[in-house]
Specification:
By secondary structure, the chain is of the alpha+beta class. The protein has 14 helices and seven strands. The longest helix has 21 residues.
């Protein structure tokens, strides 16, 4: 089921962010086959457009993405296959709400789950597709409490944390509770405005801060040059699994680009989350289980 090409009215049915506008210029007027050709050319690039396009356009181009992933043309496209899990996570609400699309997405996930070798997706880098597909299908089929249903309907936005100063203390406390590697005072210092780094970002739902992303300057492991790092990326537990972390990460890369940074790093124990968003691993400390990852070519990230 391909459906009709989204109209101009479909594209204008929601207020745009910069990412939705980018999706518009890449996909507006594109037929199913033309969209499939885009994914064949560069699936990891164009799947980001599908993540951020308006809901009225999402099913049509999601189906084109799935058609590509289930075609012989997707052979060896490990990034394209892995990014589909990110897409499902970010657009879970629409997928659950559309019974036909829901069945098609589950079918595509089952297809991907059994073809790890076909996509040449290294389990050490991309995780086991069978397990990731099982988790994603479980999320799609999960029974929802009334509170969860209400939360699912709340849009999640990204804004500078400075617009919500009354959450600064809470955000610093969240970070300390999560990692226990610094004091609340030190955390607050990395979340306030500074001339040497972008300001911290907040994920917002129902007028409340539900997640934060902060930056810090620190020497790189490659040449010791002081570069920009993501110092913390955290979503409060009850809001996890709804795409807030992915939105914060994408906005963080864009903030680094707007600040004029060429390189962006992160030190983390969950490398697969970042790798699904195009980051590459450059160091692994086996003793601590921590990883250093870099986002390649930050200055061109707006073109991904």
């Amino acid at each position: 089921m391909e459906g009709n090409i989204p109209t101009e009215a479909d594209w204008r049915s929601e207020r745009w962010c910069l990412d939705a506008e980018h999706a518009y210029w890449n996909f507006v007027g594109k037929s199913h086959d033309e969209a499939v050709a885009l994914f064949k050319d560069n699936a990891i690039r164009y799947q980001e457009d599908v993540v951020f396009m308006p809901s009225a356009c999402f099913p049509f181009y999601c189906r084109a993405y799935m058609a590509y992933l289930m075609s012989p043309d997707s052979k060896n496209d490990s990034d394209g296959a892995s990014c589909f899990f990110t897409l499902v996570d970010c657009r879970l609400d629409e997928i659950r709400a559309d019974k036909t699309l829901k069945a098609e997405v589950i079918a595509c996930l089952k297809h991907i789950a059994t073809r790890q070798a076909f996509y040449e997706a290294d389990v050490g880098i991309y995780g086991a597709f069978a397990e990731r597909a099982k988790d994603a299908i479980g999320q799609i089929r999960a029974r929802r409490t009334r509170e969860m249903i209400a939360m699912d309907k709340m849009p999640i936005g990204i804004a500078p944390l400075r617009l919500y100063p009354h959450y600064l203390e809470a955000a610093a406390a969240w970070i300390v509770d999560q990692w226990h590697t610094s004091t609340e005072e030190e955390c607050r210092a990395t979340l306030v405005e500074s001339p040497d780094r972008p300001g911290a970002l907040a994920a917002i739902a129902d007028g409340c801060v539900i997640g934060v992303l902060g930056f810090k300057r620190y020497p790189t492991p490659e040449d010791g040059a002081e570069e920009l790092w993501i110092n913390a990326l955290l979503v409060v537990e009850r809001w996890r699994g709804r795409g807030a972390g992915s939105k914060l990460l994408h906005a963080g890369v864009e903030a680094a680009r707007a600040f004029g940074c060429e390189r962006l790093y992160v030190y983390t124990d969950v490398p697969k989350f970042f790798e699904r968003h195009g980051w590459r691993q450059i160091r692994h400390n086996e003793g601590t289980g921590m990883f250093v990852l870099e986002y390649p070519n930050v200055s061109a990230s707006g073109d991904h």
